[in-house]
Prior knowledge:
With 338 residues, the protein is of the alpha/beta class. The chain folds into three domains: 3-80, no CATH class; 83-228, Rossmann fold, CATH 3.40.50; 240-337, no CATH class. 31% of the residues lie in helices and 27% in strands. The protein has eleven helices and 15 strands. The protein has helices spanning 3-6, 51-58, 92-103, 115-124, 134-139, 156-166, 180-192, 197-200, 216-228, 240-247, 287-303, and strands spanning 13-22, 34-38, 43-45, 63-69, 72-80, 83-88, 106-112, 128-131, 148-151, 173-176, 252-261, 271-275, 280-281, 309-314, 330-337. Strands 3-2-1-5-4 form a five-stranded antiparallel sheet, with helices on one face. Helix 3 crosses helix 9 (216-228). The longest helix has 17 residues, at 287-303. It is elongated, with a radius of gyration of 23 Å. The termini are close together.
Amino acid sequence: xxxxxxxxxxxSRSVLLTVxxxxxxxxxxxxxxxxxxxxDGRIETSIPLAEEEKNxxxxxxxxxxxxxxxxxxxxxxxxxxAKTAVVCGAGxxxxxxxxxxxxxxxxxxxLEDRPSFGEEARKxxxxxxxxxxxxxxxxxxxxxxxxxxxxxxxxxxxDMDCLDVILRRPFRYAGMMSSHMRAAxxxxxxxxxxxxxxxxxRLHSPIGLPIGAATPAEIAVSVAAELIAQPKRPGDxxxxxxxxxxxxxxERTLAMIVRRRGPSPRSIGTKMIVFRDGTASxxxxxxxxxxxxxxxxxxxxxxxxxxxxxxTVDLRPDAxxxxxxxxxxxxxxxxxxx
Length: 338
């Protein structure tokens, strides 16, 4: 296992395959082996693959299960680099928003022209802070259709300078903090500057879901909720704590749901990292079954087991160990020592 399998370089995508069955059994020489399809079509693998099998892998998107060949089954998931939010302005709402976006897995770039406010953004958790004229800082960033832009500077003129750059480039989401009246004036001004009406109409303004927000923290919640409501990218979904744990040093075990039959508390691809001291990052659903998975992960580390294992957990109501807290399905969890 290498970190790049689970966290592609910024702006890139990949597809990760993990063998879960050999000859219909959840054990065997290839179980737990990985195959990585890079964005440019290159394939890194420790599994012997025919060219026809490689071509099938190159067509994969999203997540699911694939029979690589008779007797060899893999779980695959498309991976994307970290979600990026560019926040223009570092006032009170922006500081609250930075903290929330950190919790939801965003990489955050903040633009400010006041050094003292930029320092507050760093304290709030911004990954990168650019100090200087807003339009100039925006132009220094590469075009990326996956980026979300949030405009909340201290004045209308600065907001317009930001929109003049943002609305001429691709983006995943763009929003501006404003009233309905100011949003209408901004539309007129942007069209006068040469921005197409279609481009402006992609802008969310007033920003945020209408939840009656009043305080800076409440407004930040409404903005974060609107971002969460946007269509998901393939590969979105890993918790920040899990990604941090994948980067960590020391012995630990990856527990990843690779198959489910019937209802389960979390979807396939959900991950949890179990450390040797018994602590864990992330959750695959909680309750008795998660405790059972943790126990097995710790047991494997104590015994020094290095071969990956697929553990089947029965969540049906009549399973004795469920203590009446069943979801009703059966899940397979891959346990892999890191």
